[in-house]
Amino acid sequence: MGVQQSETDTGTEEAAASGEESGGTGSATAALVAAVLGFFVITLDVSGVNVALPAVGRDLGGSLSGLQWVADSYTLMFAALMLSAGALSDAVGARRAYGWGLGLFVLASLACGAAPTLGALTAARVVQGSAAAVMVPASLALIRQAFPDPQARARGIALWTVGGAVAIAAGPVLGGLLTTEWNWRAVFFLNVPAGLASVLMLTRAGRSPRHPAVFDLPGQLTAVLALASLTFAVIEGGHDGFTGTVLVSIGLAVMAGSCFVAVEARRRMPMLPLELFRMRGVSVPVVAGFALNAAFYGGVFVLSLFFQEERGQSAFSAGLMFVPMAAITANFNYLSPRLVTRYGPRAVVVAGLLTGALGSGSLIAVDTGTPPWVTALLMIPLGIGGSLAMPALTSLMLDSVAAERAGTAAALLNTSRQMGGALSIAVFGALLAGNFATGMRESLLITTCLLLANALGATALLPRR
Question: Are 253 and 234 in contact (CB under 8 A)?
Fold first, then answer.
């Protein structure tokens, strides 16, 4: 069905959504479960694939930069398309958009598992990332529509983040186990049963209302070009130096980024209203979300390679190293909204950023002689920091915008987060290409400083309550 529909259909869907919010507990629960399961498969894919990358390289061939593209092609499309995906969610209804994205994600996961070459795998990852871009803002919009009460919505968002935390815990272990005992391809097949379960729950969720939205093709094209050029320049420049191709990519990224800002400033209905950045409840979560994902996913990428390439651990053993961090993280995801209610968002956000900085900073001292159990313990604060701060940042952002902007706001936040992950993998991979130990320390130092700077910024910009 296209974006346009009759006023009768619109009224029917809005009435159904209204009925769901006022008394449809079952449909609201189904919407929440579907959203949580979808976020689970998205995060499971990221965490499991990072552990499997060395096995992918041995099986399909390719350099470290090729493996970076396997990781970054997913997060790049995830970030670049999410703003338009937010408009899609608003225009066609969150449930319909979510269903489209979920179906495409499952099919792309099967294609990843069957990929015969590194190029085919990277192409399938592009499709996966595109589908994930549709799913995330639509899933948060589903929760926003199903739970109009702010406290109930905060609990729903916390459960949504718990789904990601559980996937972070399960991904490295299951991915490592399947890679060691069978094949890295099974890591992608893990998405299928959870994805199908999410489809089943989605059929029981109430219909979502549609809101007017205009697809901003010039803005979308310039955003994709800017982000892709920047990622290419960072990855290839780190391995080959500042060649002519890399310099052209940098110039293209700057030009496309400037055009994006100019286009969005002039459009009557842009996909990214620039006035959102004037709101502290939006700007702080966007910047802090970038820092948290850069620290976490960049750290997982670096440590996964460190455990296997430097310490000689198996994929399964490397996956087990992340279990203590991820298991404890899940509890703090659910605790975060309670702490926000008691102490306010600023205190929780700052505490999360500082805790993450503590974890990242302590890992700088880790080397091949550090006992594995010590390394596993030092990773825990890094996970706790993100699990404390992200639910608070997400709730703060959604509470700062009108309901009809929920999809766009969610897309903006998660675009920033995914770019944090993509660029950290690109930068850290370049640093590791030289001396691994030095590159690892430099990578962790960067994330530590980034988190500390954001803690200071949040302290200064957010109100006490």
Answer: no
